[in-house]
Amino acid sequence: MSQHQTHRWRGVVALSFVAGAIGLLADRPNLIVLAGVGIVFATYPRLTSSPAPVLELDRRVSDRSPNPGDVVDVTVTLRNAGENTLADLRIVDGVPAALSVVDGTPRRGAALRPGASVTFEYSVEAQSGQHSFIPATVVTRDITGEHERETTVSDETELTVTGRSDAPAGRDVTLDTVGRVLSSNEGSGLEFTRTREYRRGDSMSRVDWKRFARSGELTTVEYREERSMSVVLVMDARPEAYRALADEPNAVVRSVAAAKQLLEPLFAGRNQVGVAAFGREFCWHSPGGGTNQRVELHRLFDTHPAFAPTPPRDAPPLDEQVELLRQRLDSNTQIFLFSPLCDDEIVTAARRLDAYGHAVTTVSPDVTDETTVGERLAATERAARVSTLRRTGIPTVDWGPDAPLESALANNRRAMA
């Protein structure tokens, strides 16, 4: 708890001395009396102290386990549990950084007698992950306004957002490279390759019966064999990546949401899918398939510290984490790298992984602005990094703040066509 003086009466003291001096020189008793009253008012706060407030906070949410995009109502009650009247009280609730207030306000002012309370409500939009409310900040002033105390009061409140967003349902959110890949081996796939002379033991379902009807020649149809793809979704969750536009989720929150959308078409294509992250610690979950793997990856995105909506204080060097990832990748594993491309290090990492033979595709949420010179410079530097990746053959999805992910992916497909 901190206390300081506002010095709001400093001007009154100066005016009182001026009035007193004029009253003495001009023999005006009324000015002398006025000066005396002013000095008393200005001196009184200096002779008193503001008692420390005793406060109790009760915070309640309408749903502690909402789905992404749900609106959660927050009700806050602050009670004066002390024996002194709080003439001027102001509270700002501790909304988690990754949650946006969509209705109401987390601020309130009040005057509270002993035992009295004030209640206010506001609403936030749920984002994937675990979100802990921080202590509310309370500022109190005494009746004179000269003494001001700032303190915090807490009530442990946490939202766990583990559901799936309904936004991508029924939509094509895949890239050209998402899905099953074709091998050079001929077998029982779906893509026609050639016909050859029938051999004993060939399946009768693969005989070209139309050709047999025309020419009497017995031939077998060959198809290109399909095999599943091994994919790792890699998240750039370093401190540098936690950038955001005003009142918008930061790049890591957006990247996690995008990765979770891509899980569905990847698993629908019977691919082997894994997850990794560069951040406060290296995160790795090896590729796998099936329902259990999909559930595990959703849980990992929602609960692992590497995907937290708030930035870490520091992180291991990126090149060390890239090496840890490379050691765990199979030779044919493809990579989807989610990053705002906020520095050259992540571009170097993407090119390094691609050079090792892992086909890299970058999905980059754009969190730059052009309202100031510094922000315009950051936007220009990011655009240059996008161009660098594309020139080196790494497909890069430039995902703007107002565009749905599926639109950004569609634009990328058209650009690659």
TrEMBL record:
InterPro entries noted in UniProt? DUF11_rpt, DUF58, OmcB-like_DUF11
Q: Which organism is it from?
A: Haloprofundus marisrubri
- Domain of life of the organism encoding this protein: Archaea
Please report the name of this protein according to its UniProt entry. Answer: DUF58 domain-containing protein
Give the matching Pfam families: DUF11, DUF58
Any idea where the DUF11 domain is?
Answer: 55-140
Where's the DUF58 domain?
195-363
